[in-house]
Every structure is written in C-alpha cells, then in structure tokens.
Write a structure and sequence with these properties.
CATH architecture of the domain at 81-339: 3-Layer(aba) Sandwich
Strand content: 15-25%
Number of strands: 18
Distance between the termini: 40 Å
Helix content: 25-40%
CATH topology of the domain at 81-339: Aspartate Aminotransferase, domain 2
Order of helices and strands: HEEEHHHEHEHEHEEEHEEEHHEEEHEEEH
Radius of gyration: 22 Å
C-alpha cells in the first residue's frame, strides 16, 4: 500500500475506479441521498499535503482542496496536533451559553485581518451558508430594512435564506417553492463576456448605472435596502474576479445610502489569493465579511466578521449550538499561524508562477478562452470557438475526467470553467505537474471539436 507521506506527485496503481472504490460506490448509490454531485469516482481514504490517496492505494495531486477548504493541505501535522490535543481536553460546551478561552482569541485574530480602522466583532458558525444566513439577519437588524441585492452567477449557499441570494444554477432552486422575498439580482462584471466590450479593469460601469438608475428608482428605494452582497471573486460562478473600481464604487454607493456592504469571502478568503481576503486587492472596507472553507483546514467552521458599530444585536437575537467548538477553534488558530507564517506568501508566489506558466494557453489551445483569477484561485474557461466564445461544458467535463485518470484532481465552476484551488502549500514541482497534465488534457479534448 502506498503511503501519502512518501510522495509529492501522483501514482496510479489500479484502473479507475479500483475494486474497493467500486464496492463503495455501490453502497453509496444504495444508501446516500441522490442530491450530491460527484464529478468522478474518487473514494478518498487518507491525505497528506497536496496528495490524496484513495481506498485502492492510488495517489492523486489535489488541485481542488476539498473545494478550497484544505488551505494548509491535508492533515498538516500542526493542525492535527492542535485537534488531537484539544479533543482530549474538551470537545463541546456551546459558546452560545458558556465561554471558551479560544473563542475571543480567534475572534481577535480574525478581526485584525479585516480591513478598516474600526474595531471588529465576530460571530462563529458551522459553515459558509450559516455565515451568509447570519449576515442577512445582521444587515436587517443593523439597518431596520429588509431588502437585499445580490448578483447573477453568485453562490451563497443552499439553505433557504442563502439560496434566495444564490443565482448560480436553476437546479439549486428548482422544486423548493417561494424563497425569501425582497431580493433582487443584477449582473456581475464578467470581463471575458462583458456585453459592452470592456476590459477586466473597466467592466461593470453599466451595471452600477443600472443599480442606481433602474433598481433604486423602479424596484427598491435605497433607503429600504439592508445590504448588497458580492463575492470579490465569484466561486461557483466560474472564478470571475470583480474589477477593482467596481468594488470601490459599490462600496461608495452603499456608504452613500447607509446600505451594509457585505463581501462573501467563503471561497476566496484565508490567504487563497495571496492576501487574507480577496477584497483587499481592491482596497475596500466591507461592513460585514463572511468566511468559512479554509478557515480551519477542513474542520467545520465559519465566521461573520463585522464592524463593531454594525454587530450590536441584543443577546438572543442570533445564536448557535455547534457553531465554533473548541476543536474547530484549535484547528483555526493553527491554520492562521501557518497561513500567516508562510502559506499566504506561498499562494502569492505560486499563483504568480502558475499564471506565468498559463499565460500562453489561450494562444496554444483553441479551446481555452480565458485564464483568470488571483493567487491560487484560478479559472480556465473552456470554449468551442475562441471567436464566438461558445461555451463548451462537455469539453470542460471531459477535461476534468481526463485529469482524474491522469492523477490530477480538479473541479468545474460555472457552466464551462475549470477551477484550480490547490492547498496553499503546493510547490513548483506540483504546479508544473498540474500544468503539464492539463495541457495533455486540452490536446485530447481539442480533438473532439
């Protein structure tokens, strides 16, 4: 049996899926909800660093990181040690009714990472979706308003409030009836497909005009709007970065009308883009910031971070039983040490390296329409024709499957984009392997046109 401690690159020892994986897939089909989405038959057993080993001993290079969750890699020794030590002392008492020493410690550290001079307050949750749900409530509570504005292509979660903001895929909403009222969606500044032909630096001016000239005049009076929520880089929407000026202007509009400016950094935060938060690249200071995924290296934890003057709800206004337990806090504190100490800078360095490595892909591969992102949050949009930009979801899906069979784990995002979101600890050798493997996949997929 291959141990993940021995390798930095993939090694396949069986056909995929292997015999043990096939057995588990049969059990899964028999007992599990059919609502889960699986792109390929990986049955994970153990992991270390950026390598994941399946139940048949096949080792894969992970450029998905549990959907951008395993920020410090799989089972980082310092994170594991922190979890084990805390689990032996105390697992749960409920931070809603009692106190933990680690709770304010983590809150203070998170608050220091959020831009803006004002002091911050933090509420802990189990997940990103719960953080979004809490942000909706907090925005309403702080403003005494009830309307919200979000963006097409966004993904904020699947519970009913968060789902009401989500506008990623219709299948995520179909069959669930009426959602939260008082929510309007507007286009997201998608430079590669900008309807007005703008660049990545200027796309979105017309959207802001629509917001002020149409939404505020015909649908919602701005004094009724509690919050505007945006992903600085859309995740499920296709790893699409919002231009710097757009985020700055959106903040100006929010400030002008007393609207809570909410940034969803669930996927883009915790050092993934080379800074603590993707929004830092635009120099904005949100009122409310939502985090999860990479915050605790795989342990279930989310956070709402807000300006102190915003998070002033009364005791009992919002609470949680499991949100933020000592084991998750221990993992998060160890995770922050690692990200702050080395992995944030590594994400910046390896991101620059990969973007340099990928710079000619639109020239070298006719099915690659766009390469975009920041740090180790990279989107590769697959098209059938570069001139018409016809989306090629089938080719994207083929590439994801081909990569799996070559030992590389990637996932799709949006209709036709491949996302690269590896652990923040990857090195140049692993980046090169991923790039070479994807190039081979592009060549094979390109023959299908």
């Amino acid at each position: 049996m291959l141990t993940t401690l021995e390798v930095k690159a993939p090694r396949l020892v069986t056909a995929l899926p292997g015999p043990n994986a096939k057995r588990i897939l049969e059990q899964d089909a028999k007992f599990m909800s059919p609502s889960y989405t699986r792109d390929y038959p990986l049955v994970a057993k153990r992991g270390h660093g950026a390598i994941v080993e399946d139940v048949d001993g096949n080792a894969f290079l992970d450029f998905a990181a549990g959907i951008a969750v395993c920020s410090t890699g799989h089972c980082h020794p310092k994170v594991v040690s922190a979890i084990q030590k805390q689990a032996a002392e105390l697992i749960h008492m409920s931070g809603t009714d009692f106190y933990y020493e680690s709770m304010p410690q983590l809150a203070e550290r998170l608050g220091r990472t959020m831009p803006g001079a004002e002091a911050k307050k933090v509420f802990f949750t189990n997940s990103g979706t719960e953080a979004i749900e809490g942000a909706i409530k907090l925005a309403r509570y702080a403003t005494k308003r009830d309307k919200m504005i979000a963006f097409y292509g966004c993904f904020h979660g699947r519970s009913m409030g968060a789902l009401s903001l989500t506008a990623s895929k219709s299948t995520q909403r179909k069959g669930f009836g009426a959602l939260l009222s008082g929510i309007e969606h507007i286009p997201y500044p998608y430079a590669y497909r900008c309807a007005h032909g703008h660049t990545g630096e200027t796309c979105g001016a017309e959207i802001l005009e629509q917001l002020e000239g149409q939404i505020f005049k015909r649908l919602f009076d701005p004094e009724d709007v509690a919050g505007i929520i945006i992903e600085p880089i859309q995740g499920e929407g296709g790893y699409v970065p919002a231009p710097k000026f757009f985020l700055q202007e959106l903040q100006r509009i929010c400030r002008q009308h007393g609207i809570m400016f909410i940034v969803d950094e669930v996927q883009s935060g915790m050092g993934r883009t080379g800074k603590w938060w993707a929004s830092e690249h635009s120099g904005i200071e949100p009122d409310i910031l939502c985090s999860a995924k990479g915050i605790a290296s795989g342990m279930p934890l989310g956070a709402i971070i807000a300006r102190e003057s915003v998070m002033r709800w009364k005791p009992g206004a919002h609470g949680t039983i499991f949100g933020g337990n000592p084991v998750c806090f221990a993992a998060a504190l160890a995770t922050m040490d690692l990200i702050e100490g080395e992995y944030k800078e590594n994400a910046h360095r390896m991101g620059d390296y990969l973007f340099g490595r990928l710079a000619d892909w639109t020239k070298n591969f006719k099915i690659v329409g766009d390469v975009r992102g920041r740090g180790l949050m990279i989107g590769i949009e697959i098209v059938r024709d570069q001139r018409t930009k016809e989306k090629a979801a089938d080719l994207r899906n083929l590439i994801v499957d081909l990569a799996f069979h070559k030992g590389l784990l990637v996932l799709g995002a949006g209709e036709n984009t491949i996302r690269l979101s590896p652990p923040l600890l990857i090195d140049q050798e692993q980046a090169d392997f991923a790039a070479r493997t994807l190039e081979d996949c592009f060549r094979e997929a390109g023959k299908k046109i």
